[in-house]
């Protein structure tokens, strides 16, 4: 067996390595704005210090957004806002992925007596990409845990972190008369 010519093959391999290194430059396409990390990081949404290991802020990784502390803060605010009984439906719609398309469902959830009593505690936020996060959350009614920590999702859409539509669908069963679109 005759060895293959090494000159052109080695040159092509080196070019492929350089191209691969250039593509993996670390730019995740995230928001280039910079802000100071939130002072609320490390506390649960109930306002009391949370010393559980799941409440630690995410650390920047190849899959995290440019500013994971700010992103986590935005995710927690979106979740709290969605469950805030005083927040108008129009504002809740802006907190959900493609929310305007599902405004009827969001309105039903907001007006449902049983669903309106729910509050949320975000227990953990783990970024799976610069635009997606797994959210561990607990549903509460008063001091009673309704749904122990459950996985949910947040997505970055139009430069804002929102509750994923798939998560909204899973929350619909928490109300008595919340209409579910066919997409659920």
TrEMBL record:
PROSITE patterns: PROKAR_LIPOPROTEIN. Pfam families: Mtb12_C. Keywords: Signal. Residues 22-75 are annotated as: Disordered. Residues 35-65 have a biased composition (Low complexity). Belongs to the MTB12 family. This is Low molecular weight antigen MTB12-like C-terminal domain-containing protein. It comes from Streptomyces xinghaiensis.
